Amino acid sequence: MPSAIDQSGNKPSQRNDDDVIDFKQIISVVIKHWYLFVLSIAICSVLAFVYAYYASAEWSASAKILVDDSKNNPSSAASASGLGSDFGSLFNVKSSADNEVQILKSRSLMENTVKQLQLNVRVFSKEGLKETEIYQECPFSIKLNYKADTLFVQKYNIKFDANGQYTITNSKENVNETARVGQTIKLKNYDFVLNPITNRLPTGSYTIKIVSVDDAVAQLSNSFIAALSDKQATTIDLSLSYPQPKKSEVILEEIMKLYLQSNLQNKVQIADSTIEFINSRINLVGKELNEIEGDFESYKTRNGIADISTQSKVLVSSANDYYDKLNQTETQLKVIQDLEKVLHNPQNKSVIPSSMVAPNDVAFGQSINTYNEMLIQRDKASLAYTNNNPIIQNYDQQIETARQTLLRSITSFKSNLQTSESELKRQNGNVNNKLLQVPAKERGYLDIQRKQALKQDLYQFLLQKREETAISKTSTISSSRIIDHAKSDFYPFKPKKSIIFLVGIFLGLVLPTAYLFIKELLNIKINSKQDVVKATNATIVGEIGHNEAQETLVAINHSRTIISEQFRSLRTKLNYLLNTSKPNVILFTSSMGGEGKSFLSVNLGSALALTGKKVVFIELDLRKPKLSEIMGHDHNTFGYSNYAVSEFTDINKLIKPIWFDENCSLISSGPIPPNPTELLTNPKLERLINELKTKFDYIIIDCAPVGLVTDALIIEKLADLTFYVVREKHTYKEQINIINSLRDTNEIRNLYIILNDIKINRNSYSSYGYGLEKPQKWTSKLKVKRN
């Protein structure tokens, strides 16, 4: 016999690899459900068009700021390190571009911008169902007097009439009032006033949306970006996304304006602190100078001194050098002591004028500059962070460390000055010893004159520094400047209609695909031949279509229906599966009831009988017999169960004729026994089949489902061929594993699958002339649905 079809059916059942993607099947499923994809793409495209039309457009405005970062400017750093510089060096602040970015992104700056421009109030005009925000073209301005700190989002509809009156409505707050422009309307959270911008009265309908300042700040902060242009530059790129292009430019300009004002105000504040410190010292030194000058005047008056004796000129001249040096030392010591008092107070965060002391001590001056720089950086950082922020706390720790270091430096420096002072006094004492011959009045005169000169020099020094600081304050400019003013793009960047349409088409493809995929995941039953092919390698020898007429007998003479031709095709394949030169036993089984074993048995037998073959049907489903009922007989009459339990041996009384074909006969099951399995193991069954082979060409056995009981496995050894029936949309996919198990264990030798009740594409058959004849109607005793 030909080997095109597996003859033995005993080979190991190798399951198909589930990891292999069957593109052919996928394309087949797509073509089969093409209408779903077309409909889904059409609906999603329409929704994408509607979304693109009604979505709020957004424009992007951009600007650029340059930060003069002295850390990257060698000339500025060199200038700042000059110890002989005046108080203007205080304004050579080392500004960090990264810190400036944080200041620009700070909530306080955005909140000031929102309040300044009243950005929590927006006006929309209606164009059909679409609302568009208006700004410069808005014909009126809005003034709100808030009554509550926290506001919920509220929308008010405004409609103007020709007389300058308007009606304001809000269904949530039950607001429905009429007023004239300029008139105050008292609402729950605020008083509301509309004022015309031009002499012409507003007309038309508008929508006003009011949110809290916090909400407006949050929304704008999310759409505002400030970032360095690159790692090497100190320029900051600013951008803002907003639905109104002109308004986005105004917002961005206001942010830059408030930032520059804050930057300049910070420097002015430092200058004011310095001037305040100098003024306090001038007042104290001036008071001391007045007291010394008064004492000097009293001394001269009391002693009648008008001029110093020419006799002491030479000695005084030699002593003046020591006096000058002592004056300088005491002046420095006095300033150091004042600074030490300031630094001993940890709460004092005022900057220290480095140029007031130690013009020749480079290390000490640099320590003061470092301390001042930390104070300035901490003040700037506090604009963006709270006192509990780790960055601020880190600055405080660094400032405290620098303060302690500076105090130690001052102590050391003061000790040096005191040593120098002691040495100068000692040397001055030597000179004084030489002046013992000078009248006592002259010595007192010189002492008072020296004190007066000391205080006078210190007083003049403070006056000079105050003027220099005042001049520096008036000439102070911001360390940042605008390079590019705010400018919005010509076209909105959002919505991107092309992307929206592509997403719509993509979703149109994804949704039906997901639907089919989920449907396949949730479907646990056999839906097509491909499901069986995936689950097992057992050979499928026949495919029987759905019986639309619901008639049990379809394979009859002169019938040209599709299903009758399928049974004829199955009959032809038996020539390849069986040795047709001898009688053959065909067994029908399945996984469970209702899969069509009896239906297939009757029609295959009928198709064989049409070729002149003698066919006998044996109803061996002793638990739930249906074959007798289909053929118009009662299974309770004399049948196999009677034959198996009695001494009866004449099988001719078992065989019943079937009315639809004289070549067909039936052996019914007989009464349902309590022990069907034992009856099937009876040796009389084998003797019965062997005797039937002498009378018939084909013996067709309708047996119980092998997925439920073992009856079929008992009978299988007597069969030449076993047909396992799988019914579409009825058999579970898991039940195909029964076939695999039977083949792997070789419990059934010649096992083949028949697919039953499949869907048929009539067009493919009608083109060859099939399916043109309707099924014939038979008598009522055959109008039983397939089992």
Automatic annotation (TrEMBL):
The chain crosses the membrane at residues 34-54, 499-518. It is a multi-pass membrane protein. Its EC number is 2.7.10.2. It catalyses: L-tyrosyl-[protein] + ATP = O-phospho-L-tyrosyl-[protein] + ADP + H(+). This is non-specific protein-tyrosine kinase. The keyword ATP-binding applies. Residues 21-117 form the Polysaccharide chain length determinant N-terminal domain. Residues 442-520 form the Tyrosine-protein kinase G-rich domain.
